[in-house]
């Protein structure tokens, strides 16, 4: 019940230069019946922003009253990666040794924010729900840790997909929970939910 809401939330998006350069933002309102209504939207051209600095932007909402105040920082992506299983970033013994050295006790206070990272190998799914009329699904897998989100490619018409991808996340809070969700791609429609598992980092 506010016309001047303050959210003060931070989101990290992993932006790659081969993707589209526009950040799309929508403001919506929800009533008690879970009905959503659009209150405005705007776009930010990422390529026009200076690198390695925090940009304070006041963005007027298109065709609607009001504006958004945002801080957007564009910086080189560190710590987050997606790779194939055959080139797993921790497969090299010398790299594992460097990691052990980086997080040894004597280096604990070198960088307080660098508390570690999580590497997840997403191999395959078995006996998924059939979401399509043909008795098949088009599954892909989404991994979320804090506000970081990465996903696999889609394997079409398959209930036993194999992705064989390796995802690496920097850890910002040891109390975070890794959420792994499988969806069925459905063209231009929102994807269908096929299942989910949640893994607290403290249980790893």
TrEMBL record:
SUPFAM superfamilies: C2 domain (Calcium/lipid-binding domain, CaLB). It is found in: Membrane. PROSITE patterns: C2. Keywords: Calcium, Membrane, Metal-binding, Repeat, Transmembrane, Transmembrane helix. Its main location: membrane. GO terms for biological process: regulation of neurotransmitter secretion. Coiled coil: none annotated. It is a multi-pass membrane protein. It comes from the Eukaryota. InterPro entries: C2_dom, C2_domain_sf. GO terms for molecular function: calcium ion binding. Belongs to the MCTP family. This is MCTP2 protein. It comes from Smutsornis africanus. The gene is Mctp2.
């Amino acid at each position: 019940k506010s016309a001047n809401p303050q959210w003060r939330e931070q989101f990290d998006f992993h932006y790659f230069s081969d993707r589209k350069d526009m950040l799309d933002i929508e403001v919506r309102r929800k009533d008690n019946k879970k009905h959503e209504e659009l209150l405005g939207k705007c776009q930010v051209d990422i390529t026009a922003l200076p690198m390695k600095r925090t940009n304070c932007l006041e963005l007027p909402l298109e065709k609607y009253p009001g504006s958004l105040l945002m801080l957007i920082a564009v910086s080189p992506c560190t710590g987050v990666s997606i790779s194939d299983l055959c080139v797993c970033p921790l497969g090299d013994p010398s790299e594992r040794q460097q990691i052990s050295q980086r997080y040894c006790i004597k280096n604990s206070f070198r960088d307080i924010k660098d508390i570690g990272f999580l590497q997840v190998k997403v191999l395959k799914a078995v006996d998924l729900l059939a979401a399509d009329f043909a008795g098949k699904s088009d599954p892909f897998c989404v991994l979320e840790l804090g506000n970081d989100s990465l996903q696999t490619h889609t394997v079409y018409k398959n209930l036993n997909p194999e992705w064989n991808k390796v995802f690496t996340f920097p850890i910002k809070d040891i109390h975070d929970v890794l959420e792994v969700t499988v969806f069925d791609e459905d063209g231009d429609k929102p994807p269908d939910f096929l299942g989910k598992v949640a893994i607290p980092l403290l249980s790893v």
